[in-house]
Design goal:
Layout: H1 3-21, H2 28-39, E1 44-45, H3 46-71, H4 77-83, H5 94-100, H6 106-129, E2 133-134, H7 136-155, H8 160-167, H9 170-194, H10 199-202, H11 211-224, E3 225-227, E4 241-243, H12 245-274, E5 278-284, E6 291-297, E7 302-307, E8 310-313, E9 319-322, E10 325-327
Parallel strand pairs: 1-2
Antiparallel strand pairs: 3-4, 5-6, 6-7, 7-10, 8-9
Helix pairs in contact: 2-3, 2-6, 3-4, 3-6, 9-12
Length: about 325
């Protein structure tokens, strides 16, 4: 599993866990309880914050109906004015409370005041949670930093000998990854050149329902080239591209960075699979063609692992590498 897949899997687990914890908040009281629970925490995931925000929207529609029904049917001008001054958002009560001052009906005033106090508490609570919001991207960055720190620690610790063997193959791996990326880049540039640099010819447009697939297929071309038109393009004008050494260099650098991260992930996965400190390690064969890694663990167990590296590219034109590894004993 490459780094991208590893992150995606971890994020799916996180999101599934969070989703299982999320539930419908059927009343303002349940919303307040949820807010107070997160208020005791150091952070709240962006998805959880948006979930509460969504539930607030659902429940406030019920509150709108209650407020309108409460003020409905009165003939005096003040209450009729209140009927048309009901709040249109959970935190927008200024106009409503101003109109409420002139309403002579105690029962109406009590309902509006109680709702105002409830929704004000909810709005204040959500405002207090905002600084605690953490986005998934931040979590991914933190996870990557932790993994890198753990890997550096292992390099001088219990897995140092095994890691040294795998690191000795890193330069060869990066060199091959660079060659594959260069081939992939040149293939698509050649295809575009054969289409007279017309992207509409290289990747014909598709029906509207396949628009996303069409955009995926054009991603590699737009990543590698610049538009030839400088002053804007009409809807029916062809999408003519031109080579961009700057974009090509940037794309190549991105692929090498992905390859480096994938290799780090591969080493980390091997450490996890072996599961205990290693006292001896041997690597035979090419890591590209069924390499054999034999390790002796601290408990005296001998483990034999077969592995090889497969380089692929996604439909978005991004490199992703696979390291199928199986234990053979």
């Amino acid at each position: 599993m490459n780094l991208t897949e590893s992150i995606r899997k971890d994020l799916n687990i996180i999101n599934e866990t969070l989703a299982s914890q999320r539930k419908q908040l059927l009343t303002p009281e349940e919303i307040l309880t949820a807010i107070k629970e997160y208020d005791n925490e150091d952070e709240i995931m962006n998805a959880d914050f948006n979930h509460i925000k969504q539930e607030i929207g659902y429940r406030f529609r019920k509150a709108e109906d209650l407020l309108q029904d409460t003020a409905r049917g009165y003939e005096d001008d003040a209450t009729r004015a209140l009927y048309f001054a009901w709040p249109t958002a959970p935190c927008s009560w200024t106009r409503t409370m101003k109109a409420l001052k002139d309403v002579p009906h105690k029962e109406v005033v009590e309902v509006y005041t109680q709702q105002y106090n409830t929704w004000k508490e909810i709005c204040d609570g959500m405002k207090a949670l905002k600084p605690k919001i953490v986005k998934s991207a931040t979590k991914r960055a933190e996870k990557k930093d932790r993994e890198e720190a753990e890997l550096e620690k292992k390099k001088t610790g219990d897995f140092a000998q095994m890691i040294k063997l795998l690191e000795a193959n890193r330069n060869e791996y990066i060199a091959v990854a660079r060659d594959r990326a260069e081939e992939y880049k040149n293939y698509h540039l050649k295809k575009l050149e054969m289409a007279d640099w017309n992207l509409d010819v290289a990747v014909p447009e598709r029906p509207f329902e396949e628009y996303r697939e069409y955009k995926n297929r054009t991603a590699i071309y737009t990543a590698l080239t610049d538009p030839a038109w400088k002053a804007g393009k009409g809807m029916n004008d062809p999408d003519i591209r031109e080579r961009s050494p700057k974009r090509e260099e940037k794309w190549m650098q991105e692929q090498i960075e992905i390859a480096e991260a994938n290799y780090d992930s591969f080493i980390k996965k091997m450490i996890q699979k072996i599961g205990e400190p290693v006292t001896d390690a041997k690597l035979e064969g090419s890591i590209w063609e069924n390499a054999t890694l034999t390790v002796t663990t601290e408990s005296g167990e001998t483990q034999v692992w077969k592995t090889k590296i497969i380089i692929n590219f996604s439909k978005f034109g991004k490199m992703f590498n696979q390291f199928p590894t199986r234990r053979k004993n």
